């Protein structure tokens, strides 16, 4: 009963804080920054107009024709409009193109030099040279055109040429449990990255908040008042429960947001097994780090000192981050497997691996059992430290003292 | 009834509380007095089970204090703090809930006591917006919101202005009238003087004086006299019948030597000066306190 009172207080206290609102907006900003460019790239704006200065007198015509055939907008109209500037009719076609560009009449212009066959080099001029999509299309279409021309010149059968120069379309498939399923290449990387980062962020943010909550009550000398109503065990458990619930709410919101974005991209990000795994590892990870951080909080009265002490522990964050790219390339690597059984990093490695492929059931059972045992032990020991340290004022406990409490 | 029996507590070889025993009867306002560092707060923390005694027993109504009996104890610690960012109403509600109070009752009592302390209008303010004195009154509200049978107040007057000191004293009186037992720790004697029936004076962790305040004063005080006269009292003060004297509001307060009886001295005095008023007064507790503590120290 009192446990729930403490838990509810901590939960409401934190969720109402400005910090919590910020923590929800912050990832939105991050997502915005990282996703927006991709979104902009995928979203093709309307028709584009390019000028063409063709010094070969044959490539340009084919280029325009090929673009008109290949690239059309949703309403069926050609996406690219061309303004050919013929060299022999003008003094300086480049100057004309430049003034059109300056006048926003065209988006850019292409110069096909007379010796393109030998140099394999064309020029693109634009106010922005960052639109890779258009440039890729120019370059690949020009390559094909020149190749075909060369093959024709060498008397190859036109049908054979057609066949030889067909584009390759890359379809991606993901193989799980033996069955092939068409997927998106984004999924294979987005899933593990997403889960590991959300898990890291949620666990360490919540643990930090828990530590600060303990520190606040010590600094404000509130502990004594609290202990006149509840036991130290209930106080610590209530805090873990309440702030854990806050962390859970936070990740549910994150995942929901991510799902919205993922659906927009046609990526299957959130799966039932993924979710179950995620919540199990969040709960265990938070219990592990939360109880540890709470104990550290109980040892100090100044936030600075506590942060310094916890700093080394927080370096653990680095391990999964460093190994994630390697694990994605090679999830079966022995090192990745071994690290999955080191309890403090088990949650991050297991969530990574379960999103990279199928793991044998025994791996789940074994790693999970080790993690549960280790977490239980940590909570017991952290509880002992907390119970004694939380009411100590004036002097900071020495290491031998802490060891004595742990043995008690 | 709260019984403290031969309780001892040591910190790093310093005896904070040394074989201390006293009993607080139901309905009493009991004063636990002593100079700074005498062991009052340590004793109270042991009653609240924040720390455990090395030796001795603490019993409330014939049974040891548990986390459940603590629901019927109100406690105002000496070290005080509150959740600065939270609203008064929320904080009071939280501590009421921690005492297992039902929400509706907690709300009604919060209203009642905030009003009594003149803070109802600030119920929706954040704690940090309140002055220190007002924060202290909120802490008092927290300690009495569940209308406990036993109320333990550690230095309740410290940091309050005289008006609020009177207010707190009144509220303590009201609680006593409703049957609340109060254990009050302080070094401010004038407050104890008016509130407590019984006291325990401790110094260096040991009881140096305990019992009924009136009796204590009678034992110590039959020798103090208060003299008023239109004549100069300075010459009187110089008389060698006194151990010490003090001039206060045109009156002379003097403590007579053991060999001198007040009524005999009065006979001699009326022959020397026109006496307007002569009374045998109780010594103020502060004097007893200072004497005892100094005596101990020497």
Structure description:
- The complex is a heterodimer of chains A (408) and B (298).
- Chain A is 67% helix and 7% strand.
- Chain A has helices spanning 2-15, 18-42, 59-70, 93-102, 116-119, 132-153, 158-164, 185-219, 223-227, 232-265, 272-299, 303-314, 318-329, 334-339, 346-354, 361-389, 399-407; strands at 48-54, 80-84, 108-112, 123-126, 173-176, 179-182.
- The longest helix of chain A is centred in the middle third of the chain and has 35 residues, at 185-219.
- Chain A has 408 residues and is α/β, with parallel strands linked by helices.
- In chain A, the strands form two sheets. A four-stranded mixed β-sheet of chain A has the order 2-1-3-4, sandwiched between helices.
- In chain A, helix 10 runs antiparallel to helix 11 and helix 13 runs parallel beside helix 15.
- Chain A starts with a helix and ends with a helix.
- Chain B is an alpha/beta fold and 298 residues long.
- Chain B is built from ten helices and 14 strands.
- Chain B has a six-stranded mixed β-sheet with strand order 6-7-8-3-9-10, with helices on both faces. A four-stranded antiparallel β-sheet of chain B has the order 2-1-4-5, covered by helices on one side. A four-stranded antiparallel β-sheet of chain B has the order 12-13-11-14.
- In chain B, strand 12 and strand 13 (251-256) form a beta hairpin.
- The longest helix of chain B is centred in the middle third of the chain and has 16 residues, at 162-177.
The end-to-end span of chain B amounts to: 35 Å
What is the chain-wise order of helices and strands of chain B? EEEHEEEHHHEHEHEEHEHEEHEH
Fraction in beta strands of chain A: 5-15%
Number of helices of chain A: 17
What's the alpha carbon Rg of chain A, rounded to whole Å?
31 Å
Count the DSSP helices of chain B: 10
> What structural class is derived from the secondary structure elements of chain B?
alpha/beta
């Amino acid at each position: 009963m009192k446990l729930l009172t403490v838990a509810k207080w901590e939960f409401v206290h934190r969720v109402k804080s400005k910090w919590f609102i910020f923590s929800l907006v912050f990832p939105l900003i991050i997502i915005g920054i990282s996703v927006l460019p991709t979104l902009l790239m995928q979203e093709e704006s309307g028709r584009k107009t390019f000028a063409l200065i063709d010094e070969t007198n044959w490539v340009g015509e084919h280029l325009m024709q090929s673009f008109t055939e290949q690239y059309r907008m949703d309403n069926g109209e050609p996406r690219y409009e061309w303004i050919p500037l013929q060299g022999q009719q003008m003094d300086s076609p480049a100057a004309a193109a430049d003034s059109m560009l300056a006048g926003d009449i065209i988006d850019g212009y292409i110069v096909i030099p007379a010796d393109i066959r030998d140099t394999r080099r064309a020029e693109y001029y634009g106010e922005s040279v960052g639109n890779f999509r258009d440039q890729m299309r120019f370059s690949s279409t020009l390559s094909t055109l020149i190749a075909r021309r060369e093959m024709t010149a060498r008397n190859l059968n036109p049908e054979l040429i057609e066949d030889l120069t067909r584009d390759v379309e890359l379809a991606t498939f993901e193989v799980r449990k033996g069955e092939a399923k068409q997927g998106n290449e984004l999924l294979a990387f987005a899933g593990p990255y997403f889960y590991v980062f959300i898990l890291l962020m949620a666990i360490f943010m919540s643990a930090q908040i828990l530590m600060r909550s303990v520190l606040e009550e010590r600094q404000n000398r509130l502990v004594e008042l609290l202990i006149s109503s509840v036991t130290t065990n209930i106080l610590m458990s209530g805090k873990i429960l309440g702030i854990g619930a806050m962390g859970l709410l936070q990740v549910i919101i994150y995942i929901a947001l991510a799902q919205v974005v993922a659906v927009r991209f046609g990526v299957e990000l959130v799966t039932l097994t993924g979710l179950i795994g995620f919540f199990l590892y969040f709960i265990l990870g938070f219990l592990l780090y939360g109880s540890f951080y709470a104990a550290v909080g109980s040892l100090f009265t100044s936030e600075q000192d506590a942060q310094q002490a916890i700093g080394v522990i927080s370096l653990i964050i680095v391990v999964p981050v460093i190994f994630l790219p390697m694990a994605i390339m090679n999830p079966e690597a022995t090192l990745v497997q071994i690290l999955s059984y080191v309890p403090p990093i088990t949650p991050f490695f297991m969530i990574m691996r379960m999103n990279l492929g199928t793991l044998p059931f025994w791996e789940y059972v074994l790693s999970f059992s080790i993690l549960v045992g280790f977490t239980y032990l940590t909570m017991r020991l952290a509880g002992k430290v907390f119970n004694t340290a939380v009411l100590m004022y004036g002097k900071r406990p020495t290491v031998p003292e802490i060891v004595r409490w742990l043995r008690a | 009834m709260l019984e403290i029996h031969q309780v001892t507590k040591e910190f790093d070889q310093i005896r904070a509380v040394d074989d201390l025993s006293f009993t607080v009867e139901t309905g009493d306002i009991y004063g636990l007095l002593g100079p700074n560092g005498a062991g009052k707060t340590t004793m109270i923390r042991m009653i609240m089970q924040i720390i455990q005694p090395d030796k001795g027993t603490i019993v409330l109504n014939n049974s040891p204090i548990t986390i459940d009996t603590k629901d019927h104890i109100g406690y105002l610690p000496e070290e005080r703090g509150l959740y600065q960012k939270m609203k008064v109403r929320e904080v009071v509600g939280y501590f009421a809930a921690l005492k297992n109070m039902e929400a509706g009752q907690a709300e009604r009592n919060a209203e009642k006591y905030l009003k009594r302390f003149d803070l109802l209008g600030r119920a929706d303010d954040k704690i940090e917006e309140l002055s220190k004195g007002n924060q202290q009154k909120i802490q008092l509200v927290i300690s009495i919101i569940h209308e406990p049978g036993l109320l333990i107040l550690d230095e309740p007057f410290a940091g309050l202005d005289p008006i609020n000191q009177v207010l707190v004293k009144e509220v303590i009186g009201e609680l006593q009238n409703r049957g609340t037992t109060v254990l009050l720790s302080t070094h401010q004697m004038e407050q104890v003087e008016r509130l407590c029936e019984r006291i325990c004076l401790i110094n260096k962790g040991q009881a140096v004086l305990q019992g009924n305040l009136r009796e204590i004063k009678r034992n110590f005080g039959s020798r103090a006299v208060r003299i008023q006269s239109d004549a100069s009292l300075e010459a009187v003060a110089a008389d060698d019948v006194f151990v010490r004297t003090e001039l206060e509001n045109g009156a002379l307060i003097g403590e007579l030597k053991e060999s001198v009886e007040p009524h005999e001295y009065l006979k001699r005095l009326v022959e020397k000066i026109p006496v307007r008023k002569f009374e045998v007064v109780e010594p103020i507790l502060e004097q007893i306190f200072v004497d005892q503590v100094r005596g101990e120290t020497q």
